[in-house]
Design brief:
A: 426 residues; mainly alpha; B: 194 residues
Chain lengths: 426, 194
């Protein structure tokens, strides 16, 4: 009964615009006080120690690395390089957009960083080249979700911490699905380009390609250091994050000389703010998740689902629907911290690897970033492009089709996710 | 597309400006730091201390082949502090993530009532959190493993952060009350976090 109240309270508070972290913590506090089984000290103790975790140290530094790269001009160089590579195709800047996102995905772990930094450049370039804003926003939004699938990835770090599975393996597992997302989106862009007769934006030129490669070379090393370091087992994710930050700082200060002290201060404060907002949600969600587990809600839910059906295909479909719906209403980090304890027992009973499930879950929640009401990526793109929120939503909608197609493939063909982790770690 | 459409080419440091690359953002814009207050220097120091400690650990493990023992514990505590002291900064700037979508369908007065309730709940929570954290700090007599310091120091700093959050939340509520709207009812006024 009280537990039902807990859920009603969380969702009620969320809908009425109480910040996500406060909605979770306040409801948990109310539950603990009303239930009276444990002292209220537990709430703050759980909250504070929920972020007292070594793997979570990767969070601020992946955020820092992304912000540094956007400010230091690394992002621009990568965009130019992508343009020289695929800009000659029909609907070229659409492909460039996706290609640049793939490279950026290898350096940054948050879709919102991709949308806010690279997205600004992409939308401006596409607007200048005469693309309609709907198409630009749609491609940019959809391609930014590749960021947290290809390593590194903030959501995967959080998932790894909550599910206590290997973050390195999760990173490896996202690599192929991320490339599949890019491929599916490029097919979509190619189809659009044909149907609407989009121009070719530049002639292919080896000289330009070489020039942009030279300019981008040091920048392009960043994803190679990070992805190679993690997949090669040289770095732990936290180490990769600090190495990437240090490298980006070095490029910005010593090589490109684009980072002034004021810019560095700006980057620091942006990073602190994002880190605090994300980690505050993690802290609040950890007390909420603790209540769910200690009251055996998660077990009961697992039993309930398994009475409906024991067919793994149906259950996975059901879980996908649940995740897509929750992804629409809930912020990614909160959704992971709350849903992993609930869903993981079911999934494990079905014999699905937690690493594979991590990819499924993050992919679902990334699609949720593109849908109202809590589509963070859409909010950011609406702000940077000046296109109204509602129009951004409808512009992005067609691009959900290729993403959902990839989601289904990834869900039902475990090898797509598990091939690399098995190869590397076992 | 001609590269010149994106603004003037510029010499970028040591690089030869053969074909001027286009850099539409960042570099040419002045940096706006108007949202920063003197008290933010505390969290700035905590954050760079965290970066330093984590880098030191990384460095000692790879270069000296022997990671320094205390770095892990201290890094975790610094992460806790950056989280809560930084959360106070985000309360001041009102940038904690919230769902504002449904206010699109709430007319003026209803929206006003709801957003005022949100402000009051926020104050209430931070006050309660500060209170409980103080109790927690008083009850804690654990010591840190690597430093000669009680773990309650961490809790006291978190307590201070919650006191600051209560203060900022009160000020925010007061502002919303005086101006007659909050960012919930007028999302256009909001600055989103990145």
């Amino acid at each position: 009964m009280l537990l039902a109240l807990l859920f009603v309270m969380v969702f009620g508070l969320l809908i009425f615009g109480v910040p996500v972290a406060i909605a979770l913590a306040l409801s948990s506090l109310a539950f603990i006080l009303l239930a009276g089984q444990v002292p209220d000290l537990v709430v703050m103790h759980r909250m504070i120690n929920g972020v007292n975790s070594f793997p979570l140290l990767a969070v601020p530094f992946f955020i820092l690395a992304g912000n540094l790269m956007n400010t230091a001009g690394i992002t621009n160089r990568i965009f130019d390089f992508a343009k020289a590579c695929v800009g000659w195709m029909r609907g070229g800047l659409g492909h460039v957009n996706i290609g640049a996102s793939v490279v950026f995905a290898g350096m940054s772990g948050a879709a919102v960083a991709d949308a806010g930094g690279l997205g600004t450049i992409e939308i401006k370039a596409m607007r200048d080249a005469g693309y309609d804003p709907d198409f630009s926003v749609g491609v940019t939004a959809a391609s930014s979700t590749i960021g947290p699938i290809i390593p590194p990835s903030l959501p995967m770090v959080i998932y790894g911490v909550v599910a206590s599975s290997s973050i390195g393996q999760l990173f490896a597992a996202g690599f192929i699905p991320g490339l599949m997302m890019a491929a599916s989106l490029m097919i979509m862009v190619a189809w659009y380009a044909r149907a609407r007769n989009y121009p070719r934006d530049a002639r292919f030129s080896l000289a330009v390609l070489w020039g942009s490669f030279q300019r981008a070379f040091l920048s392009l090393l960043t994803p190679i250091i990070i992805v190679g370091g993690i997949l090669g087992g040289i770095f732990t994710p936290t180490e990769a994050a600090i190495a990437a930050s240090a490298y980006a700082l070095f490029l910005g200060v010593a090589v490109y000389r684009t980072l002034t002290l004021r810019r560095l201060l700006r980057v620091s404060f942006d990073t602190i703010e994002t880190t605090a907002v994300v980690m505050f949600i993690v802290a609040a969600a950890s007390i909420f998740a603790w209540i769910l587990t200690s009251n055996r809600v998660t077990e009961q839910f697992a039993a309930l689902i398994l009475t409906i059906t024991e067919n793994p295909v149906l259950i996975l479909l059901m879980i996908n629907v649940i995740l897509l719906v929750v992804g629409c209403f809930m912020e990614t980090i909160a959704a992971i911290t709350i849903l992993v304890p609930v869903l993981l027992p079911i999934v494990v009973k079905l014999g699905i690897d937690p690493v594979h499930f991590g990819v499924i879950m993050v992919l679902n929640l990334m699609i949720g970033l593109l849908t109202p009401p809590v589509g963070m990526v859409i909010y950011v793109l609406s702000r940077v492009s000046g296109v109204p929120f509602e129009r951004c939503v409808t512009a992005t909608a067609p691009f959900l089709i290729p993403l959902v197609a990839v989601l289904l493939l990834v869900t039902f063909i475990p090898q797509l996710s598990m091939f690399l982790p098995t190869l590397i770690y076992r | 597309m001609a590269q010149s459409t994106d603004g003037p080419g510029k010499d970028y440091g040591g690089e030869a400006p053969k074909a001027p690359p286009h850099f539409p953002q960042a570099e040419d814009e002045p940096v706006d730091l108007s949202d920063i207050r003197p008290e933010d220097s505390i969290v700035l120091v905590l954050f760079w201390a965290l970066a330093g400690v984590v880098f030191l650990q990384f460095f000692s493990r790879y270069v000296m082949n022997d990671s320094i023992g205390w770095t892990e514990e201290i890094a975790r505590y610094l992460l806790v502090l950056v989280t809560f002291v930084g959360a106070a900064l985000a309360v001041r700037k009102n940038t904690h993530i919230a769902v504002e979508f449904f206010y699109r369908y709430l007319p003026g007065a209803g929206g006003r009532v709801c957003s005022t309730l949100v402000d009051l709940l926020r104050i209430g929570f931070f006050f309660a959190a500060a209170w409980i954290t103080a109790k927690l700090a008083l009850k804690t007599n654990q010591k840190m493993t690597s430093l000669e310091m009680g773990k309650d120091v961490i809790y006291w700093i978190v307590f201070a952060a919650f006191v600051a959050m209560t203060f900022y939340a009160l000020r925010l509520a007061w502002r919303h009350w005086r101006q007659g709207y909050s960012v919930l009812t007028r999302p256009a006024e909001r600055q989103l976090i990145d």
